[in-house]
Amino acid sequence: MFQNPIIHRELVGLLRTKKAIAIQVALVFMFAVLVILRWPVDPTSDLDGVKAMQVFRLFGYGILSALVLFIPVFPATSVVRERHAGTLALVLNSPLTSLNVYIGKLTGVMAFVVLLLFLSVPSLIACLGMGGLDLTADVLPLYGLLLLTAFQYTTMGLMVSCLANTVDSALRITYGLVLLMSILVMGPHLFTQGTDTWVADFNGWLRCVSPVPAVMDVLGHGDIGSYGLGSNENSIGRYCLIACISSIFFVGRAISLLNFKLFDRARSQGTMTHSLSERAQRFRDVFFMGMDPQRRKSPIPRFVNPIIYKEFRSRRFGRAHWIVRMMAACVIISVALAIASTQGSEKWGPEIINGIMANLQFGLVILVTPSLAAGLISSELESGSWRLLKMTPMSPFRIFTGKLMSVLVTVGLILIATIPGYIVLLQVQRGLIGQIGQIVVCLVLTGAFCFALSMAISTMCRVTATATSISFGLLLLIFAGTFLVWLGRGSPFSNETVTTILTINPLATAFGILDVQGFAQFQNVIPVGMPWGEDNEFMMPVNWILMSILTVVLLVIITVRLDKLTKPE
Amino acid sequence: MSTSEPVVVIENLTKKFGEFTAVDDISMSVDRGRILGFIGPNGAGKTTTIKILVGLARPTLGKCTIAGADCVTDAKKIKQLVGYMPDKFGAYPNMRVREYLDFFGAAFKIPPKRRRNHINDVLEITRATYMQDRYVETLSHGMQQRVGIARTLLHDPEVLIFDEPANGLDPEARIEMRELLLRLADMDKTLIVTSHILPELSRICDEVAIISAGKIRALGTLDEITEQLGQMRMVEIELRDASDVSKAVSVLEENVPGVESTSSESEKLIRFRANLTEEAMQQLLASLVNGSVSVSQFHEVQTDLEDAFLTVTKEDRAKMV
Lengths: 569, 321
Prior knowledge:
The complex is a heterodimer of chains A (569) and B (321). With 569 residues, chain A is an all-alpha fold. Chain A folds into two domains: 5-40 and 47-262, no CATH class; 329-566, no CATH class. Helix content of chain A is 70%, strand content 2%. Chain A is built from 26 helices and two strands. Chain A has helices spanning 5-16, 18-38, 50-70, 73-85, 87-92, 98-119, 121-130, 135-163, 167-182, 187-192, 198-207, 211-218, 235-257, 278-287, 306-314, 320-343, 350-373, 378-383, 385-390, 396-416, 419-428, 433-460, 464-487, 495-502, 506-513, 542-566; strands at 525-529, 537-541. Chain A has a two-stranded antiparallel sheet with strand order 1-2. In chain A, a hairpin with a 7-residue loop joins strand 1 (525-529) and strand 2 (537-541). Chain A starts with a helix and ends with a helix. With 321 residues, chain B is α/β, with parallel strands linked by helices. Chain B folds into two domains: 6-228, Rossmann fold (3-Layer(aba) Sandwich); 232-302, Alpha-Beta Plaits (2-Layer Sandwich), CATH 3.30.70. Chain B has helices at residues 46-53, 75-81, 97-107, 112-125, 141-153, 171-186, 198-204, 222-229, 245-255, 278-290, 305-320; strands at 6-17, 20-31, 35-39, 61-66, 69-70, 82-85, 159-163, 190-194, 207-212, 215-220, 233-239, 260-264, 269-274, 295-301. In chain B, helix 3 (97-107) packs across helix 4 (112-125) and helix 4 crosses helix 5. The longest helix of chain B has 16 residues, at 171-186. The A-B interface holds A 166, 267-272, 296-302, 304, 306, 309-310, 313-316, 318, 383-394, 568-569 and B 51, 54-58, 72, 75-76, 79-80, 82, 84, 86, 88-99, 102-109, 111-113, 115-116, 131, 133-135, 138, 151.
């Protein structure tokens, strides 16, 4: 197998990248710091190995988050990048089969994962030296799970890479799936655990799609937000089963795609609806709700910023009919959830529905905003169209506002579409108005921050794929990574540390507002005097101030960068 | 159509990047309705000069004006006066050709009604009407070049600047491109065209500027350039008998000492460069005939742009070595 030249090239190519070096250095540094922090310095011996277990837990979560956040980037760009560079055609034209190519790419990434795991061995040995850890009961199951997770995410990335048309769309889809498969699938279980319904059973299985519950189980931790309820579910077994089945699917799908069919695609002939039959025209009118993308459009209106039109038209899902469909889906889901709260059991009360809706909204904002904003400037720089824009009389401000509005309108419309659900909820329980209002503020600030961060990165990168991966990486670090510290609450992290770290995460603030178990005590709030009402003091989350300041700073950076980019060299 | 009124004027233009001088004190002008071929090897300073002209870069020293507007201080006016097509097309995904042109028309603030007519006109001029519904990223390179030119014409600029418009085109597309450029010049547009495909330029350009190592080495019509460079005449001697080739070479070396020649027995051909007068040429021919060399043809090869270009770059390469 190691005679396969693809393995050699993939692994050596990967090890030469700056990203790979940065990941290795960061991991070694992190492992070393963890051990040093918990190394026993007092004369009292730690017979039950509590400190070793504390370090080991963070170890496990740290490696897991590194695998989930960074590893999928490599396979996700691997095939699509080669397809565009033309080297995939050369490889497929050689005696190597599709299976050889696939195994080569998979082994290259997996070898890198094994290397990363090996980097943790010296620190792990130090942990074992501290006592209290068992090699077969603790260490090997964790490493087995981590390898399985890496395999699952690598095969997923490779499949996406075979399906995607561009490098940045491959990254967007991959990070979307990472967010879905590792974090969002755990959401519904938070709200239905402890109930005895088929929905609860389904959510119990759904949560095991994520490797987090299995890793938590191995590390002897409870569930996220587990209301103190014990669970008899075998999350390790479930995860292994789901990971194996999904990996087989990912491998099969990718190998079926990895052949000359990738290149055997005709160029679009640009068929227009008016050249089709009467019947076909009528069908398309109904199907596209009167917004047929194949009908010729009227010119961009005089007083509208042309950048907004351009952004919508050049997005794959930016056409009006897609936005209307997405809005319709949001309206249906939110209203259905709200109606469920009026007809369901007591367990499905308005508070729980409110929580599920907020989770869905945060997921949408975190997923959609960077995927739109990270390419706003970098894609122009990459394709060379920035130079053309500079040659038009449009000012930097007009370009910025056009791009801002194109993201704002899309995200805003999707969020507005969930309002009918809230209206139904408020009809059921008027007392929720304050909570809903605070969640909306969190969402708006999250959207603004995600946009500003992604666009700021976009102004600094000349390649959209880089901008997209950095944006998603940072946002996942803020929105998902900070929960790792929360997992280590009490020990090794003090409550103050957890509260401070979670201040940066608007999702944690939203959980605090929603009184999700385990988050209420970590609300970092300050009392603010309000000029109205009897109770004229409001506990404002510090996160709101922090997000506002960060967003303003990022907007200043965007302005400075745009000004520089639009000026002559 | 052309007048002697200079539209593009470059005076003592210098551009430095740190210690490196990309453009070194160049001056030239282009009259209305004329086509200037701007040629030079890679890294000679062509694109830098063009970027300064269109306002994408600032000069270190010197001045450029287009129709009286300063390229540095009148940046807004320059955008209206110049249509620039860079070497990179700048496609937007999922956009049809008509939508692509509509966007740039709107960016140039052309009112919708007029914009629709303009788009029809520019598609007609560039013979690209049939591709108006195609997606820009699916177009072939030749098609993209035509859409690129259509885009530059949208706001009806006086001056058109094309960076390598014939690059990567097949022979048929090159002929079409050449015809298109001539049509634009007939519309009284002033054109500056850079290209590496020199025969293309020599056929359509009124004037040529050769830039090398940041300096203008030659400027003027092709005839003027040949004169400026003091080029040696290239002569070809075709023989009837291949066995006469060595004899002919020795006669040539006797008559023109130190001459550099190439010969091919299979082609029965000798080619040489020399700075010969008409009398010297007659003398050489007579010597060949008297020496019993079976000459079938003796003629001078017309100097072309490629020769001029090679002469200049050869000198610069020699200096660098």
